[in-house]
Write a structure and sequence with these properties.
single chain, alpha+beta, 8-stranded mixed β-sheet, 4-stranded antiparallel β-sheet, 10 helices, binds zinc ion
């Protein structure tokens, strides 16, 4: 691979994509959650066509962009392999009026993002900076996020596709590409049409730190407790009043104190209270249940059911209602049946000169949902840093490396026959 050729492409692309506001939003009640994500989707569709990618399609309603670089090996059927990145940026920080700029040959010191507003990224606050001394960083003006999450991945996948189209001598099977909306707000690639996409297995590209990957996510559900009380004047309440606030408080006291996000790490699970709205008549407690281990996860849900039973026994079953909403499952359960995907991924990262790092992801990915819908889908890091905030940045060299990793994946995937 010619590094300089790819360098200019990924740089130009991320700078251009970053300027397009694609912030998603929580709880809008419709998908995609914001119309403006389609602004970038249209640009990506046109760009895929202009670089010569086949079967380009924009699902205008779902805001999903598709493309394919068809196989150029004749004698064998190679398994079609997919690459997916997300279009939206996080609601946590502004994505409007992003002004990306490049700091070449970073010297390891503090970085002045905005002279006028005196916004400085201190090397002492962000220890990840020292990994990138001598590299070229794309930064913001300190007032918005950059959106390298996940546009660094879109830039890498687009440049990788262009490389395959421009270099017909690089042999590969069908390479399927998709860009999807709303990853940051739990969209879970819901509108990705597997038939149109055409891949049998895929990789999402997302996450920080170059060379990291994930083949494991939480099992996840949301539990909602509804308590119905009986309100009456406090002066005459004896034997009559039933206070829903008490029920909510008793529930919260039953939860194990050390099993909260702030006390857990690694593969430890937790209960997380999201909210509690309560008055005497009615209380509603919402909490997240998370665990990597499937049996432990079920035990956690069972524990909540026991809490509901206990409160029901004390206050009346009709006054306690528990609803458990399944969110996503640990993708390892699916990925253990396709071990070649992780072998290929690790080999591809190593071949690019980077030591692969795998950590269980303490959250969910679109890939977790896709895996359970039938498309096994581990995650490769995008290489951005400080995502979801104003100090986000992307080393250009990390995007170049990711293009190289994708090419390495293609090469190794040639050995995987499509026998389905
Ligand atoms: Zn992301």
């Amino acid at each position: 691979m010619k590094q300089e050729e790819v360098y200019e492409q990924v740089k130009e692309r991320l700078m251009r994509y970053a300027r397009i506001d694609t912030q998603s939003a929580e709880y809008t009640g419709h998908w995609p959650t914001t119309e403006k994500q389609k602004d970038l989707a249209r640009v990506l569709k046109d760009e895929l066509i202009s670089i010569g990618v086949s079967d380009v399609f924009l699902d205008e309603e779902g805001c999903v962009v598709y493309g394919k670089v068809p196989s150029n090996v004749q004698d064998t059927q190679v398994m079609p392999i997919g690459f997916i990145a997300h279009i939206d940026t996080a609601p946590d920080a502004s994505g409007t009026n992003v002004k990306p700029w490049v700091l070449e040959n970073y010297d390891g010191g503090d970085i002045v993002l905005n002279k006028e507003k005196n916004i400085v990224m201190k090397a002492s606050d962000y220890s990840n900076l020292k990994m990138y001394i001598g590299q070229d960083l794309i930064l913001t003006d300190g007032t918005t996020l950059l959106g390298g999450d996940d546009k660094a991945s879109i830039a890498a996948i687009m440049s990788f596709a262009q490389y395959l189209v421009d270099h017909g001598d690089v042999k590969h099977g069908d390479i399927c590409i998709a860009f999807t909306p709303d990853e940051e707000v739990g969209g879970l690639a819901r509108d990705l049409d597997f038939e149109r996409f055409g891949a049998k297995v895929a990789y999402t590209l997302d996450g920080d730190h170059l060379g990291w990957y994930e083949d494991e996510t939480f099992n996840a559900s949301e539990a909602v407790f509804e308590f119905t009380g009986r309100s009456v004047h406090t002066g005459t309440a004896k034997g009559i009043m039933i206070n829903a606030v008490d029920m909510a408080a008793e529930l919260m006291a039953m939860l194990p104190k050390k099993e909260r996000p702030q006390y857990t790490e690694g593969v430890e699970g937790f209960y997380h209270l999201i909210s509690c709205e309560s008055d005497c008549e009615h209380a509603r407690v919402r909490l997240l249940v998370r665990d990597f281990d499937h049996d432990n996860f079920k035990k956690r849900e069972d524990f909540l059911k026991k809490c509901a039973d206990k409160l029901g026994a004390d206050y009346g079953d009709e006054r306690v209602k528990l609803t458990i909403i399944h969110q996503y499952s640990n993708m390892k359960e699916v990925l253990k049946d396709v071990p070649f995907m992780i072998d290929i991924l690790k080999g591809a990262i190593r071949k690019a000169g980077i030591e692969p790092v795998c950590e269980p992801f303490r959250g969910g990915t679109d890939g977790a949902a896709l895996s359970f819908r039938g498309l096994p889908c581990p995650n490769l890091s995008a290489g951005y840093e400080n995502a979801h905030g104003r100090f986000e940045y992307v080393p250009i060299q990390s995007m170049v490396k990711n293009v190289e990793i994708l090419l390495n994946i293609c090469e190794s995937a040639l050995a995987i026959a499509d026998n389905a």
